[in-house]
Structure formats: C-alpha cells, structure tokens
C-alpha cells in the first residue's frame, strides 16, 4: 500500500492506496488456429469464451457488453442443438482410447469435432481414473449431465449449473506436464517498476483531495499505467491460461467492490477495512489449490481424486525505492478475514460466478494429466495418446494472449481514509498432488464395476 497525507476540506486526510490490476478472460471469437477443435458444431467460437471479457489484438482487456453476451449465449444454444442426447449420470465413464481415436479421425478428415465429444460426454468433474490393460484404455469418470447455457452465456450442466469439463483443457494439460512439473501453473498481474515510481511521484505531489476523489483516482490510474500479465506452466494463448486469469479477474473485482459477490458471506475487502486503519502495505490476494491424498488400489490401476478445494491466501507488499518489497510487511487483518471468507464460501461463490468452478476444472485436469504421466499410465494400459499430444497434426485454437491490463482505482471512505484495492494471482503445482496418495480398498472395486459396465465395446462414454 502506498500512503500519502492529503488535505480534505481543511482537515488532515490519509489516502491508503491499494491498486487493482484488472485481469483478463478471453473473447468469444479471437482464435487464429486449430482445425477440428476450432470448428466445433460448425464454428462454435463461443465454447472458448470465459468470464465475459475480450482481449484485443494488442493483448489489452475489455469487457464484453450486454449485447455481445446475449449474442454469445444465443450462438452457444444453437450449437448445442447438435450436441447429442447426453443425459445425467452419477459416475460417467469416458474412454481416453475412444476419445483419442475419434479426435484423430475427425482431424484427419478435416471435420469438426462434435460438441458432446468436446465436452467429454458432459463430465462436470473427474473423480476417478481407471487403467484397463486388457482393453488398452485409460478411463476418466465422474458426475455428468446434459449441456446447457445459463443466462450469462456460460456452458454448464443442465441440473447443477456447474461448468462442464472441456477436451481442449485436458489436451493442454497433457501436453504441458513437463512445464508444470518444473515451475507449477500460475498467472500473475503486477505493476511495472516505472509505474510504481510514477505513482509515488504523483502521490507525493498531491496536497488536497477535494470534495471529489475521482480526479485523484484517475490520476493514480494514469500514473501507474498498464500492468503486466505473466502466465506460467501452460501456453499464454490457451483457453486454460485464460481461465486462470479470468478467475483472478473476478476475485479482484469482487474484493475491490467493483461488482458484488452475490453471496452475503463475502462482502468486498474494502468493506472489511476498519476506520482509521494505518498501514504502508499493498495486500496481495491469490488462489491456490489443496487436495487430500489421492486414493489408489494396491496395483495402482484405480485412482480416486477427492477433497479438493481452493484457498484464498494473502500477504502484504511494501512499495520500496526499487519496486515492491515482500519481506517485512505487517499483516493485514482485513485481508486475512476476507481471504478466510472466500475460502470458506468458495463453492457458494462459484455457483454465482461459474469462472471459479472453471478454475477448479482446470486444476482437476492438470492433476489428472500429472497423474497419467508420473505413473506412466499409458504404458501400463498399452495406450498411445500420441494423436492428442501431436501439436502439428492436432493444432489447438490459439487466442490473443493477455499481456497487459489497465489499472482501475476505486475506493470507499473510512473516516478520514480513502481505501483502494489490491492485486494477486493464481498458482498451484499439480505434480505435488499427483505424488501424494494413499491405499484404499474400495477404489479397486469401483474400477471393476466401471469396466464391466461397458456394454458396447465401441462406446466412448457409458454409465
């Protein structure tokens, strides 16, 4: 937090400046690559939109307006007419062998992949991974439902309203397991060193805030300038990466009070700052994943993934001479309280803002990909995933990668203080979760039932 004394109506006032980097989602029609995956349902670009935000050719963010969102929702609903009669299922099984073969066939023929295949048979999450050496297959399983489009244009399960998994994200996770192993998967939005210096100079020159603080807010935005977006572990131009940044975007806007959380238990962070608060820190908020140990059978042919949750964490930064110092800032009780509330009520928040459930989906597929690679499950199954991993034969859609975001300053008055909001990110290490497992007797029995339930040998999903 940057601190500056200003005069307000003849009295001493303090502006506690916490600056928000408005983060990014992806636009509805900004792809410039991909053959079969880019032609879903005769051109369903809407499948690849997250959070109602577009990115222009320069990588700068802008909100999609209401009409654009309505058009996007209409496009998705039209495309889902050809999605097939996928129904709800408590434990749907999806054959990676059949998916791989189908994708290779459609790609070789230059045909669009059907929507139900792109949505992995309507999987809402992956709770189990089964290896079938006799059938040369790896089976992904979990609750599933028919696809629908909600009022905001999100692709969701018809009954629960939860976003569905997407094949595109799974392929990205499988292709980038080595990158994720080395440095984890993350996104971050940070001010530039030059911007921080300009902001300090601007605040140092202020002598009065006057009756309308908006001019000061706009001045701070201009002084700090665009902030830099960093993505690691997955390609910055992938849908996966933009889901990460989209979730970060919504978290910041909710914390800053620019949009409501939609749930009573999570007010804005600004509302939790006590009157008269005095600090020189810039709080950061970020999201991390947490999993219970994966359950496995004795032969490591059956795996259950559970106990997942997202945690909001915080730390304080100090604006120092050379930039940001994250070494010795005092704790911010308001920030800690806000993070605790977001962690506790994350699932409820995700029901109001599906992008937070999308983030969990991406974490899940990253963990599954790390599990598949670290335990050499394709080798054990006798399954060649090459057609999914070959970027030349199966190019994925690419998007304008996010590079910078404009700074937005806003605030509420706390006594004689004007408080503005913060920055943050998303980070997790899927290999760490995949390596943490414990033996379980029942998961092997679930595997046996799942494999025996496949009545049609050619089916790529079954209940």
3D structure, described in words:
By secondary structure, the chain is of the alpha+beta class. It has one domain. It is built from 16 helices and 24 strands. The strands form six sheets. A seven-stranded mixed β-sheet has the order 23-14-15-7-8-6-24. A seven-stranded mixed β-sheet has the order 17-16-13-22-11-12-18. A hairpin with a 5-residue loop joins strand 9 and strand 10. The protein is elongated, with a radius of gyration of 24 Å. The N and C termini lie far apart (53 Å).
Biggest β-sheet: count, sense, barrel? 7 strands, mixed
Question: What is the CA–CA distance across the termini?
Answer: 53 Å
**Unreliable stretches, pLDDT < 50, 5 or more residues?**
1-36, 38-48
Strand portion: 15-25%
Report helical residue fraction: 25-40%
Total strand segments: 24
What is the spatial order of strands in the main beta sheet? 23-14-15-7-8-6-24
Radius of gyration: 24 Å
Compute the number of helices: 16
* Estimated structural class: alpha+beta
